[in-house]
Amino acid sequence: MWITEKSRRMNTLLWIIVAVVGLLILRLAWMQLVRGPQYKKVAEENRVHQITEQAPRGNMYDRNGALLVTNRPSFAVSIIPAEYSYDPGKTAILADMIGISSEIIEKMLKDGNDSPYIPIIVKRDIDPILQARILERKDNLPGVAISAVPVRQYIYKDLAAHVLGYLGSINEDEYARRKVQGYKPTDFIGKDGLELEWEDVLRGVDGGLQVEVNAFGEEVQRIGEKKAISGKGLILTLDGNLQKAAQEALMQQIEISRNTGQPAKGGCAIVMNVHTGGILAMVSSPSFDPNLFASGISTKNWGDLINHPDHPLTNKAIQSAYPPGSVFKIITTAAALDMGYVTKEEVFEDKGYYILGGWKFYGWKTEGLGKLTIVDALAWSSDPVFYELGRRMGIDNLASYALTFGLGKKSGILLQGEEDGLVPTEGWKQKTYEQPWYPGETIIAAIGQGYYLTTPLQQALLLMAVANHGKIYRPMLVDKVIDDNGAVVRSYQPEAVHTIYLKAETWDIIKSGLVAVTTKGTGAGVFQGVTPTVAGKSGSAETGTGTVHSWFACYAPAQNPEIAIAVLVEEGGEGSTAAAPVVRKIVEAYFGAKEKLDS
Prior knowledge:
Penicillin-binding protein 2a (Domain 2); Beta-lactamase; seven-stranded mixed beta sheet; cell membrane; PBP_dimer_sf
């Protein structure tokens, strides 16, 4: 009996052993035959490391070949997710060393789960001290490495910042759209200006090394290498020298206006080639230094920019709209002449005021300017004369010509955030405010006040139209795309987008009035002795708060135009005393000796 029981137990144990061995054999076969390739891949990846070489973005040059934007070498702290310990204590140590929170590092690691062997940059542009601290703790921070990466460099800091733009961390939506293009969740991407609009051209193709390492993570040999391909470069229409001159002139005038009691919150200046639409200078003040964004902007610096009362991140040339002031009288003149409501010979009496429906509307010179033709009215910016022309035409006729000259719609410049401006009509007011249009609003509109809003770029295009007898070109900022060797990949030609058809005599009358502005009228004092002759119009646009925006828009030379200019000094005072002096300095810089960028 005892032997039988012992035999039964031995048989049971034998079967258990056979079953276990069988399971082990099956498991081994499954691992080798079914999962073998996968385990081999994992083992290979543990043995072979991928070292990403980030491609530098393309450079930007001004029209004369001066380098405006490039890249500089720097070092960054990276984490290879597959090798990282994911120890909360070690993450906290790393976070403290590099100055960001553990939560941010954990989110970066989570976002990088799709590519566990591609390094994730967690801190850019580190200094030598932090490099040393990271290397000292290398053994205690597995998966953490120091890598070389290019950092965007804006050579002249705030020069043309609103045009050039800046970079920033790719957000979730951008990453979702661009993941298929090879973007990584910690990449930097163009956020504004040309950096944004030309992202696909400026961005290069990352390269990298495949390196075999031993059990200690030390490099044994290089297995393969893929060279990074730099992004393509841009040759801009900007003239760096002129940009610098315009910026300095504007900043000096803002300071002068403030010293005379004006708020002078900022302003802008635009210079365009009237034959191509090429932007030679575009200044917006206050400005900012895009280098602040190049390796990740600090919370303090970001707060300082977005909370600044004068909005330094706003490109006032295209992203802000203002009452056009007396510059608009050019359009009133064109409409009245073209529709036959005035002739060159008609003489008006400017008594310093205009009466409509028992209400008295004053001009800027309350004692009156006397007898004036339409050319004189432009030269001396007579409000009563233009009140009368507005009354004769009516608001909808005036609006029709304003739209024809490009007001109330985007210019088509390739920059984000351009404003349309506003061209009011009777129907617009009824729809917007459910109120009728009043005759007094028409005569105010005729001098560029009331509901009208324009951008400084639209004012420059208005003067381009006069200079070209009606032809308006699309504003352009990029002339050529070049490769890494400087060879031209693509060139862009001027694009005429609109032509305003007026009689030749009408254009001649308008031009005579604009020349008279600077030779005997409101701008004569400022432009005395300037060569060549400038044809332009000043404007002092009331803000409704007791201050005025200062405008001056022009083209030069008067007889053979090359450039159109528009300058705005926000709440800077009268147009002839604040904006006009800036224009004079720009004209002198363009036609005279230009200061070098590197001086």
